[in-house]
Write a structure and sequence with these properties.
The protein has one domain. A two-stranded antiparallel ribbon has the order 1-2. It is globular. α2 packs parallel to α4 and α7 packs across α8. 65% of the residues lie in helices and 1% in strands. The protein has 281 residues and is mostly helical.
C-alpha cells in the first residue's frame, strides 16, 4: 500500500502497482480486507489475559486505522470502508468488549467525517448524492444513468444482451462499479432478486463453515471472508440504487476486474481448505 502511494504515474489516483512489461497491475487495496481478517484471527486465536488486552486492542486498532488511511489516500475510500468495516465486525465477533468496540467505532467515525470534510472530491460526491439533478452532467451522472437502467428493467427486464445503457456514452463503469444496474436493466427485479439470493446462500454456507470450524482461528477467518464478500456486494448495490454516494466499489464475483475477483477466489479457496481440514457437515 505504501509502495503504491509513492509511485507517480501522472494521475491523481495511485491504486495500482504496474509489474513492468507484464500486462498485469496489482491493486493492494483489494487484498487488504482479507489480510486484515487473517491478522485479526491469528491474534485472537491465542489466549489474551485481561492485563494486556487493552494494550493489544489499541495496537490492533492502530494497524486497522493505519491501513484504512493508506487505502483512502490512494484515493480509494470505498475499499477503505470495506477494510475498516469488515475488521470492526471481526473484532466484535472475536469477543472485544462492547465499551471498547463503541469507543473505537466512535473515534473512527469522527476521523472519517473529518477526512470527508477536507476532501473536495468526496464533498462533491456527497453534494451530488443529496442533489443529483444539480450535478447531472458531473458527479451525479453515473447515479442518474444507473437509475435509468434500473427503471428500464422494471420487473422482468428488457432481455439478456438487450441493454441500451451498457454502450459507450451512457453509463460509465458499466462493467465494474455499475454492473448491478445493467443486470437490473436486462433481467429486471427478478434477476436482481436471484443475484441477491445467491449472495445470501453464499453467506449461509460461509457462516455454517465458520460455525463448524474446530479452531478459533479458522472460525474467525471463515466469518471474516464472508463479511468481506458481503460488504463488497452490499455497498455496490447500495450505490447502484442510489442509497449511498458513488464509491467505486466492485460487485463480488460479478464486476470486471482481476484484482477483486482474485481476492474473492483466494477467500473461497481458504474456505474450501477449512472445510477439508476442520468442518464435519
Amino acid at each position: 500500500l505504501i509502495f503504491s502511494l509513492i509511485i507517480v504515474d501522472g494521475s491523481l489516483s495511485r491504486r495500482w502497482i504496474y509489474l513492468g512489461n507484464i500486462p498485469l497491475a496489482l491493486q493492494p487495496s483489494q487484498y487488504a480486507p482479507i489480510i486484515l481478517t487473517i491478522f485479526i484471527a491469528r491474534i485472537f486465536s491465542y489466549p489474551i489475559n485481561d492485563k494486556s488486552s487493552k494494550k493489544l486492542y489499541l495496537i490492533i486498532f492502530g494497524i486497522i486505522i493505519f491501513l484504512t488511511v493508506l487505502i483512502s489516500l490512494e484515493p480509494d475510500f470505498g475499499s477503505g470502508i470495506i477494510a475498516f468495516g469488515s475488521s470492526m465486525f471481526l473484532l466484535f465477533l472475536a469477543g472485544i468488549s462492547i465499551s471498547e468496540f463503541l469507543s473505537f467505532l466512535s473515534f473512527s467515525l469522527l476521523g472519517g467525517a473529518l477526512f470527508l470534510t477536507i476532501s473536495n472530491e468526496w464533498m462533491n460526491r456527497i453534494r451530488a448524492f443529496f442533489h443529483p439533478y444539480l450535478y447531472s452532467t458531473s458527479d451525479a451522472l453515473q447515479s442518474l444513468q444507473a437509475f435509468r437502467a434500473l427503471a428500464r428493467g422494471g420487473i422482468a427486464g428488457v432481455g439478456f444482451m438487450r441493454s441500451v445503457l451498457k454502450f459507450p456514452g451512457h453509463l460509465p463503469e458499466r462493467s465494474s462499479d455499475f454492473i448491478f444496474a445493467i443486470i437490473g436493466e436486462e433481467t429486471g427485479l427478478i434477476g436482481c432478486s436471484v443475484l441477491i439470493a445467491i449472495f445470501l446462500i453464499i453467506s449461509y454456507i460461509g457462516l455454517r463453515i465458520a460455525r463448524g470450524s474446530q479452531s478459533t482461528f479458522s472460525r474467525l477467518v471463515a466469518a471474516g471472508i464472508v463479511i468481506d464478500i458481503l460488504l463488497w456486494a452490499i455497498l455496490n448495490m447500495l450505490v447502484n440504487v442510489g442509497l449511498m454516494p458513488v464509491t467505486g466499489i466492485p460487485l463480488s464475483f460479478v464486476s470486471f476486474g482481476g484484482n477483486n475477483m482474485l481476492a474473492n477466489f483466494i477467500g473461497v479457496g481458504i474456505l474450501i481448505n477449512i472445510i477439508r481440514k476442520e468442518v464435519a457437515w
